[in-house]
Fold this protein.
Amino acid sequence: MPNRSPRRGLRTGLAMLAAFALWTLLIQSVDVQPVGQNGTDVGFATFNVWFHKITGVHMAIYTVTDWLGLVPIAVCLCFGAIGAVQLVWRRSLLRVDADLLLLGAYYIVVILCYLFFEMVPINYRPIPIDGIMEASYPSSTTLLVLSVMPTLKFQVDRRAKSPASRAAATAFVVVFSAFMVFGRLVAGVHWATDIVGAVLLAAGLFAVYTSAVALTDRK
């Protein structure tokens, strides 16, 4: 039973990534209408336009969530520093904790996903940002938050001996992530389907990472 857990996690992650791929295809084929900036096409147009009219545009929320996007970046840097310290003290990359090496690889994959969708826009934001049409799918801030913040809880759970520390990390990650996703959803700078896509992609990548760590632990 325990031996199947990593494989189950891997299957879950791959299923979420497959769901993201399917969602991406649907966005490009279901109810596609030229309702975006400069008449650009948007999938699930009726729903997206309806939801966008309900929320409106709130640039103050956009600005707050944009600046708070530095928090997951700081988390990445902290774990990078921990890995660097281990590398210096242990004098071998192979002696750095395996879960930290996998974490570094995981962060690189997240960055590559971000860069890919910046270069290959599926659709554009409902409104220009500083007069510029920006790629909107998947929501990059949502992807960053939901990919990185769970790794904070995951690593604290693995390394902290204090139950209070683990509970505090869990509460912070849950509240912060929920605020950021909800904020991006109602700020009006993304289509609702952009948020859904980011959630699916982040969940899939994180599940694959944790299952890879679990497999490494068993070895």
